[in-house]
């Protein structure tokens, strides 16, 4: 809803920055409608599962929105899994289409051989598609934008896999209302301005990062996306884009503060750091508060089943 509204009322507003590329809400809406068109041409129907195995990029947001636009259910793949774990999740979720980037294209033959419900694997990245993989970017120019299927509040939106403590990962089904209500609850507790640029460095296959991005998009905000956590890249991104908010796990925060490139002056735009995912040492909190006295620190606790 937020993406629709902003793309119609402020199509020139920037939604994502990734490297030297930025995309507006208007551009994203067109791409999402075309990606959904490709998915429909691949036979994706209402309720089918579409997976993505890729590092963080601006395409991750397009993947979520296009999957829902096509009436399907997103099932993002944990990039830290082994090949057998990935194959298990694809079979368990009944995934029919998988999007991969350059980093994971080498796994495609094994996945195609052992993921029994998988019908199509599409390359979704910059550069030329390896081997004979269909190139989604090239396909976009050959399809017309498709209409949004218009999923309802109780329709399944996503399957996030959570490890728990024993056995194989468990797929947690969340509805569109689960995601929306979680975003609304968060913004009621922690106000975010559409003008405050957020930084996304945590993996977008995880509910915490994905939920934060969804919330930011609902209000028409902009997001800088990094492919992985590197302290020097985080510091440079905050300085370059005047980042106001970032979500980190405690180990990331500790590495950021200890890095030789850390300089509080370079983080002058930062107004909020939300951290969670594991316990944090009191010494790290004390140090963070002392070197970043103008930054609000918020500890967040959540679980996949609660969106």
Give a structural overview.
The chain has 307 residues and is α/β, with parallel strands linked by helices. It contains eleven helices and 13 strands. Strands 2-1-10-9-11-12-13 form a seven-stranded mixed sheet, with helices on both faces. A four-stranded parallel sheet has the order 4-3-5-6, with helices on both faces. A hairpin with a 7-residue loop joins strand 7 and strand 8. Helix 7 crosses helix 8. The radius of gyration is 19 Å and the shape is globular. The two termini are 18 Å apart.
Summarize the SSE layout with pairings.
Elements: H1 2-9, E1 14-18, E2 21-24, H2 25-41, E3 49-53, H3 58-69, E4 73-74, H4 83-93, E5 95-100, H5 108-114, E6 120-123, H6 136-140, E7 156-162, E8 170-175, H7 176-189, E9 198-200, H8 207-218, E10 223-225, H9 231-241, E11 245-248, H10 250-258, E12 272-276, H11 282-291, E13 296-300
Parallel strand pairs: 1-10, 3-4, 3-5, 5-6, 9-10, 9-11, 11-12, 12-13
Antiparallel strand pairs: 1-2, 7-8
TL;DR of this structure?
This protein has eleven helices and 13 strands.
Give descriptors for this structure.
307 residues; seven-stranded mixed sheet; alpha/beta; four-stranded parallel sheet; 11 helices; single chain; 19% strand
Number of helices: 11
Q: Choose one word for the global shape.
A: globular
Rounded to an integer in angstroms, the radius of gyration calculated over CA atoms is 19 Å
What is the terminal separation in angstroms? 18 Å
pLDDT averaged over residues? 93
- Largest β sheet strand count, sense and barrel closure: 7 strands, mixed
Uncertain runs with pLDDT below 50, 5 residues or more?
A: none
Strand content: 15-25%
Structural class: alpha/beta
Helical content class = 25-40%
Q: Going across the biggest sheet, name each strand in turn.
A: 2-1-10-9-11-12-13
What's the total number of strands?
Answer: 13
Q: Provide the succession of SSEs.
A: HEEHEHEHEHEHEEHEHEHEHEHE
């Amino acid at each position: 809803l937020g993406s629709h509204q902003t793309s119609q009322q402020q199509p020139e507003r920037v939604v994502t920055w990734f490297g030297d590329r930025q995309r507006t809400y208007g551009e994203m809406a067109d791409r999402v409608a075309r990606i959904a068109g490709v998915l429909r041409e691949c036979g994706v129907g209402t309720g089918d599962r579409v997976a993505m195995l890729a590092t963080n990029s601006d395409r991750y947001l397009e993947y979520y929105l296009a999957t829902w636009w096509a009436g399907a259910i997103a099932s993002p793949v944990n990039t830290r899994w082994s090949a057998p774990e990935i194959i298990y999740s694809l079979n368990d979720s009944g995934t029919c289409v998988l999007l991969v980037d350059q980093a994971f294209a080498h796994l495609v033959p094994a996945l195609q051989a052992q993921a029994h419900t998988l019908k199509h694997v599409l390359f979704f990245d910059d550069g030329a598609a390896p081997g004979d993989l269909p190139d989604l970017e090239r396909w976009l120019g050959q399809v017309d934008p498709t209409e949004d299927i218009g999923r309802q509040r109780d329709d399944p939106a996503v399957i996030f896999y959570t490890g728990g403590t024993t056995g194989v990962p468990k797929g947690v089904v969340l509805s569109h209302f689960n995601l929306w209500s979680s975003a609304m609850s968060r913004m009621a507790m922690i106000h975010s301005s559409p003008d405050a640029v957020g930084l996304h460095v945590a993996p977008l296959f995880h509910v915490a990062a994905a939920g934060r991005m969804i919330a930011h998009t609902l209000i028409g905000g902009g997001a800088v996306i990094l492919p992985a956590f590197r302290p020097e890249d985080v510091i440079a991104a905050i300085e370059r884009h005047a980042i106001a908010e970032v979500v980190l796990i405690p180990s990331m925060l500790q590495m950021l503060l200890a890095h030789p490139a850390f300089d509080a002056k370079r983080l002058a735009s930062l107004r909020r750091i939300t951290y969670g995912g594991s316990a944090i040492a009191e010494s790290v909190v004390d140090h963070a508060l002392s070197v970043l006295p103008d930054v609000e620190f918020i500890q967040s606790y959540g679980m996949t089943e609660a969106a």
